[in-house]
Write a structure and sequence with these properties.
Two copies of one chain form a homodimer. The first copy, chain A, is mainly α. The first copy, chain A, has helices at residues 18-34, 41-48, 52-55, 62-86, 91-112, 114-126, 129-151, 161-176, 178-181, 191-203. The termini of chain A are far apart. Chain A binds a DNA duplex (30 and 30 nucleotides) through α3.
DNA sequence: GTAGTGACTATAATCTAAACTAGTCACTCG
DNA sequence: CGAGTGACTAGTTTAGATTATAGTCACTAC
């Protein structure tokens, strides 16, 4: 865990295969319990009752397995955020809940599933596709909320949408990116609420 | 560099002493060139022509020397910020320049004096007094700018001053804290400008 | 052809003994 | 007494020999 990877960890073999799922399940259990580093590919092979070589018929590398788990983990956060947004009525409320849920879900992952969080954090640090996809997805959700707010007349419309989204993304970044969140745990509960207020004030028409 | 220190590294002996200055000068040169870790207290002793034991008549620990250097380094940034603020006329402009100068000076330190930057970063991570003082000083300057803006009628006055300052502090944090700035280098040039605009919009009366 | 593997290599992690360093203290010298 | 130090220790870092691991490939069995 030190070099900058070209980071295109592919999957091999059939995308939908029983053994692939077994690998992913075993990896999730092992990574969560022992951590990414302390889990060997042989451990995973043993767990599913196949040889190590067979695992490489489905994954390009250990990192590719890590990515799969990381992706699953980050998808959990995205799902919580999506649910929060869906459960709100006004765009203002959607934004507030989005930001708050994002941070609290991540913090909860940090404390309850530290080993998985660490993979996510490492993933973000190395710019793995799983982390990038995650950030993009969050931005998409944000874009949707802002657009809706503009359409309903709640938010100002002068600034280009991209620009507005980008700067809000900058505000949220310390709480979106798992690598950064670690350093902001002390304020991760209240900051999103206060920052949401600030952002919303700046969005006033 | 691993444990959480109780972090009250004191100075010993006379605060104003020729030898103390010599130590600090030698430390600055050595830390800047070889880094904090690779510099031994004996190296510093040799550089000033005294024994290692004598150094401990002036500093409690190696960390205390590190703090002194770190303090000097961070003071450089503060000075640049103060100058930028002083050179601006309106509070709006002061805030813009403050934020921009803060980030650009820090980034420049990162690239031109990496070894010293690393000490500052470590210092921030461990919550050394030098880093805390720095953050407080930045906040003071910010408070002054906001208050001035309120008095001149440029900024809104409803929100309690503390609250306003705190949330702006949260926005600036990723660019103030050397530990965090590292991870934001990719946006450290433009982000302060865009975030300043966002903050200023939210401050509109 | 498909499902699966043992044996292999180059690289990375781990272990351990030796070397080094932070910090102290009793001491000297003027 | 005040300026300054050599010699010491407990804890840490390092080097380098050893072991473990990621990843490949030629192969078997069906």
């Amino acid at each position: 865990m030190s070099e900058i990877e070209p980071s295109i960890p592919q999957s091999r073999g059939p995308a939908d295969h029983n053994v692939r799922d077994q690998i992913v399940d075993a990896a999730e259990a092992h990574f969560s319990h022992y951590g990414y580093d302390k889990t060997t590919v042989s451990d995973l092979a043993k767990a599913i009752g196949f040889s190590k070589a067979y695992i490489y018929k489905f994954f390009d590398s250990k990192q590719a397995i890590g990515e799969a788990i990381c992706g699953k983990t980050l998808t959990t956060i995205v799902a919580a955020v999506e649910e929060a947004v869906a459960g709100a009525t006004t765009p203002t409320d959607k934004f507030r809940r989005m930001f708050k849920t994002l941070a609290s879900t991540s913090v909860s992952l940090f404390f309850n599933d530290r080993k998985l969080y660490d993979i996510a954090s490492y993933s973000a640090g190395e710019g793995w596709p799983s982390a990038q996809t995650y950030c993009e997805r969050i931005r998409q959700i944000l874009t949707e909320v802002v657009r809706e707010g503009r359409e309903s007349g709640e938010f100002e419309r002068k600034t280009p949408l991209d620009e507005t989204v980008h700067v809000i993304d900058l505000v949220m970044r310390p709480y979106v990116n798992p690598l950064l969140l670690q350093y902001n745990l002390d304020v991760a509960e209240e900051a999103p609420i206060q920052l949401a207020n600030l952002v919303l004030r700046s969005l006033a028409p």
